[in-house]
Amino acid sequence: MPELPEVETVRRGLAPAMEGQRFKSVEVRRRDLRWPLPKDFARRLEGEKVEGLGRRAKYLLADLSSGDVLIMHLGMSGSFRLSRNGEDVLGDPRYFGEAKDERHDHVVFHMSNGATVTFNDPRRFGSMKLVPRAKLESEPLLRRLGPEPLGNAFDAALLAKACQAKKTSLKAALGDQRVVAGLGNIYVCEALFRARLSPKRQASTLADRNGNPNARAGALVEAIKAVLNDAIKAGGSSLRDHRQADGSLGYFQHHFQVYDREGEPCPGGCKGTVKRIVQTGRSTFFCPKCQK
């Protein structure tokens, strides 16, 4: 499933084509995505202006002139394809793969500037939902999300407080969207390696007896922000289905230090070996020698 860097990369790719533009027409070719689209979906969008295209955790948020917000999620295999006047907008040719099967083009937005934004999703775990802006804070999809890891409010004190009473592992805590929003398996592994913290360490050890952050909390926050920013600059990670809005592939997977590197020498130079374990049903990759 695409994580925060992949979704942010898509947002940045779509924003120039959608922000400030109106939906000239909307094609709904298939209504049964993760949940059915409303019957009046196209009608509620057509003619409306996209005031802004934002992101909350792994969700794209299109703020509309009608007062609604279009919430979009890529699911497991969803992607957006951007074209103008019938021609795909192409990115760096080094990162192209085979084109998506157009039979899985489920929703097509025709914008007033001539751009066409197509949502393609072979597995149909993606979703779209229209929510009144006034009810966005209470929206079930968003209301329990934790702080944005790239936001100014996310710091060592906030993370330590969120983990203070937790008896789970650090890996499990960071994957909890209520603790920090948008992180997933890949970037949790990478951030823990950069911070030299074991994924098996108890989450509460980020705080002292009074709940104040310690050096581990500070190092982890710094590592989370750094790995996410690096991944966004690289266009995300192209594992399985992820593509950028221009059709090109992200390439941060070539910079993974531990994820999917089982059996390889630790890149930190400690002479350890990257190990794979399973936590909460997901693969965790780490160096047991230098991550404590």
Strand order of the largest sheet: 1-7-8-5-6
Q: What portion of the residues fall into strands of 2 or more residues?
A: 15-25%
How many β-strands, per DSSP? 11
So, the CATH homologous superfamily of the largest domain?
A: MutM-like, N-terminal
Low-confidence stretches: 90-99, 238-251
| Whole-angstrom Rg | 20 Å
Averaged pLDDT = 89
* Contiguous helical run count: 6
Characterize this entry briefly:
By secondary structure, this protein is α+β, with helices and mostly antiparallel strands. The protein is built from six helices and eleven strands. The protein is 22% helix and 21% strand.
Description:
The protein is 22% helix and 21% strand. The protein contains six helices and eleven strands. It has helices spanning 4-18, 41-45, 156-163, 170-174, 185-195, 215-233, and strands at residues 23-28, 50-56, 59-64, 68-73, 79-84, 87-88, 105-111, 115-120, 127-132, 275-279, 282-286. The radius of gyration is 20 Å and the shape is elongated. The model is unreliable at 90-99 and 238-251 (pLDDT under 50). The longest helix has 19 residues, at 215-233. The relative contact order is 0.16. The chain folds into two domains: 4-135, N-terminal domain of MutM-like DNA repair proteins (Alpha-Beta Barrel); 156-286, Helicase, Ruva Protein, domain 3 (Orthogonal Bundle). With 292 residues, the chain is of the alpha+beta class.
